[in-house]
Amino acid sequence: MNARDLIAGVRRNLLLVILLAVLGTGAGLGIGLLQAEEYKTTTTLFVSVAQGSQSSIDQRYQGTLFTQERVRSYAALVTTPTVTKPVIKALGLPLKPEELAQRLEVDVPVDTVLVNITARYGDAATVAKIANAVTTRLVGVVAELETPDRTQASAIRVKVVRDAAVPERPSSPRLVLDIVLGLALGLVGGVGAGILREALDTRIHSAADLMRLSDQPVLAMVPKDPGAQAAPLVGDRFGPRAEAYRKLRTALRFIGVDQPAKVFLITSPLMGDGKSTTAVNLAGALAAEGAQVALLEVDLRRPALARMLGLVGEAGLTSVLTGRAELAEVAQSTSGPHRITVLTSGPLPPNPSELLGTQRMRDLLRRLAQNFDYIILDAPPLLPVTDAAVLVPAVDAAILVTRAKKTRRDELREALTVMETARGRVAGLVFNCGAAPTADRYGPYVHDVAQPTMRDTIGDRALPADGRAMRRGNPPVSGDRAVPPTRG
């Protein structure tokens, strides 16, 4: 995960970052308001060794080292009951010795003979009294320890060089600091949570993710449309979805320049990625340009074309492959001005993979390729079943449809591996249900008023069919070959 991925992850989890930042700010404010006022003041002691005026430099240096060693011991005495008990008694504090010890801080600066004693308490005047009383008591304790028999003066001298002053303002709570710290911690936590969530989320979120994961070209990026499930055919010729399918149509022209590809298999890693919608709208985009298009439903497990296009599904591809009907008897045409010849799945067989892998299926594709400019196969997903993999070698190229925030990285890799194992040719990828491009990104060239809608192009219903054989909506036939419908 590089810096760009991290930034993208934070942007995708921006709401989480903002939420934790707000919570952190609120927590800082709450802590600040709930804290009781506390005052702090400091007193300083200087410790030295009594030396004569005739002492040498070496003696003075040795005396300083001795004092520095003793100072650390004196500092440790500050929080002992020997010091705290008399202070509590003298000032009448409602504290236990250990409680007062917790309110005292001792600091010995490095390479000095100074002792800084800081006291904390909820009253300004009292805290100054505590600090001064502790200092006075420590001086007495040191004198007692250094002259146990009291027969001679102590060589150690402890002098107060700074008395504790009454503080003018409380040291805590520091409301502004608490709020800033809360905000900072919230932001750090939010960014961290966003990065962690991004690292654990293996879904593909953008076309940029798709390009980084695969060497295959992204042929089209179809933006999300909440109404697409109810109305799969694009009805807005000015919309970005219609433009995306036109871009996909354009991309197909450059596949196999020396030997143009005609038979395309549309599949996806898993169900629900939008392969059937892509197949239908691609067929419509090709037909709108005047091409003769045949659309075959080779998903013999969960067929959808009959429902999407308002066609009859009782007979179709399986009827032809099993020899129960001729192609001309079951092929149907859509009702638009640029008709598409559609072969629905027909009765669902118990052995779809075996049926699709027969020589009859390959012969059918060859016959259709002789009479149509393009043959679009709406295939089942690659990973759950082998049906699509069986068909891959029989087509010119396959198009893999992925869905934003659904298809996972490992699913994409596995699907491409299946294609490679089947020795299929992958034309490219379609990124479905991504973020819609903004109008100001492409300017006035987003919409082409000359383009009809897919619904207008191919219609959304079948032409009438009579009871025994669906001929009235079918293209004319010659023998057992389907002939493209007449334009117009």
TrEMBL record:
Any one annotated GO CC term: plasma membrane
Protein topology in the membrane: Multi-pass membrane protein
Q: Disordered: where is this region?
A: 458-488
Subcellular localization is given as: Cell membrane
**GO MF assignments:** ATP binding
Question: What range(s) does the Polysaccharide chain length determinant N-terminal domain occupy?
Answer: 4-90
What is an example of a Pfam family matching this protein?
A: Wzz
What PANTHER family does the entry give? FERRIC ENTEROBACTIN TRANSPORT PROTEIN FEPE, TYROSINE-PROTEIN KINASE
For this entry, the protein name equals: Capsular exopolysaccharide family
